[in-house]
Design brief:
single chain, alpha/beta, 9 strands
Length: 225
């Protein structure tokens, strides 16, 4: 299987504190890779390095053609009249946005397709403030899909979801990995390892597991890395 992203001896520090060091990781294409580990272990930093939002202090991150990033913390101003469709259309915007920009038919089609894939067609015209937590999470994934990104990098998209909404999210991710590379950081260890093809334990560095079940067994046994 081809690798979509490769980390080669990557280090990243915040001032004098190194969040990640000596990271060697290959992320397989068209598969779901789960990142688990303790708070402050570096999962979010790893995701942001993959998305190109951070630059390594040492080493190289390669292979990232285009990444659709869904942040852990995204706030919405409920007083701003933004519909689901308008939110998703933002994923199609050209970085060099010009005045009086109008969406093309192709962009609108990409947004509608993404909304359909995440199962939100019935609320496409609804304001985002009217959505449930699970629906809002799927809308953000739809925005990333509309960008035509090859890789979806999701930073704890299940953090605030109830059990039913989380299950719907995991079922969605299983359908998306047929044509996308998905990397998800999560604290819901058991649930996310159940749907993963590959896994990595992140705690200052990265330990890779070709078998998510093996990682789950080690964690149950009180693994210390």
């Amino acid at each position: 299987m081809n690798d979509a992203v490769t980390f080669d001896n990557v280090r990243y520090c915040y001032d004098n504190v190194c969040a990640l060091d000596d990271v060697r990781l290959s992320v397989p294409a068209h598969a779901l890779t789960a990142l688990v580990g303790p708070n402050g272990g570096g999962k979010s930093t790893l995701i942001r390095l993959m998305a190109g939002l951070l630059t390594p202090d040492a080493g190289v991150v390669s292979g990232c053609r285009s990444v659709g990033y869904v942040s852990q913390h995204i706030g919405f101003d409920n007083s701003f009249p933004l519909t689901v469709r308008e939110l998703v259309l933002m994923g199609t915007l050209d970085p060099k946005l010009r005045a009086y920009y109008r969406y093309t038919a192709e962009q609108k089609g990409a947004a509608d397709e993404a909304i359909c894939r995440v199962g939100l067609t019935h609320v496409a015209g609804r304001g985002i403030e009217q959505l449930s937590g699970g629906q809002r999470g799927r809308a953000l994934i739809a925005r990333a899909l509309a960008s035509k990104a090859d890789i979806l990098a999701l930073d704890e998209p299940d953090a605030s979801l109830d059990i039913d909404a989380a299950r719907e999210l995991y079922a969605l991710l299983l359908t998306l990995k047929t044509d996308k590379t998905i990397v998800i950081a999560s604290h819901h260890v058991g649930a996310v390892l159940d749907i993963a093809d590959y896994a990595a334990y992140v705690k200052g560095t990265v330990s890779c597991f070709l078998s998510p079940d093996r990682l789950k067994t080690k964690l149950k046994g009180g693994m210390v890395l």
